[in-house]
Amino acid sequence: MSFVLSLLVFLPLLASPLVYLLTRMNKRWGVYACLGLAAVVLGVATYISWQVIANPPAPGQYLLQEQYSWISFKSFGLDYFLGTDGLSSPLIFVSALLTLLAILGSRKLIDKHEPEYYALIFLFEGAIMGVFTSLNLILFYIFWEVVLIPMFFFIGVWGGPRRKYAAMKFILFTYAGSTIMLLGFLYVYLGMMPVPSFDIPSLAGHIPIGLQYLPLLASFIGFAVKLPLVPFHTWLPDAHVEAPSPISVLLAGVLLKMGGYGFLRISIGLFPKASVQYAWAFLAIGLFSMFYGAVAAVLQKDLKKMIAFTSINHMGFVLFGAYATLVSGNLLGIQGAILQMFTHALAVGSLFMLSGYIQHQAGTREIPSLKGLGLTMPRTAAILVLASGAAMGLPPFASFLAEFMVIAAGISAYTITAVSILVPVITAGYFLWMIKRTVLSLPEGTEVHDMDLGDLASFAVYLIPLVVLIVASYLILTPALPVAQFLRGLA
Question: Of all residues in the chain, what percent carry a pLDDT higher than 70?
Answer without folding.
Answer: 99
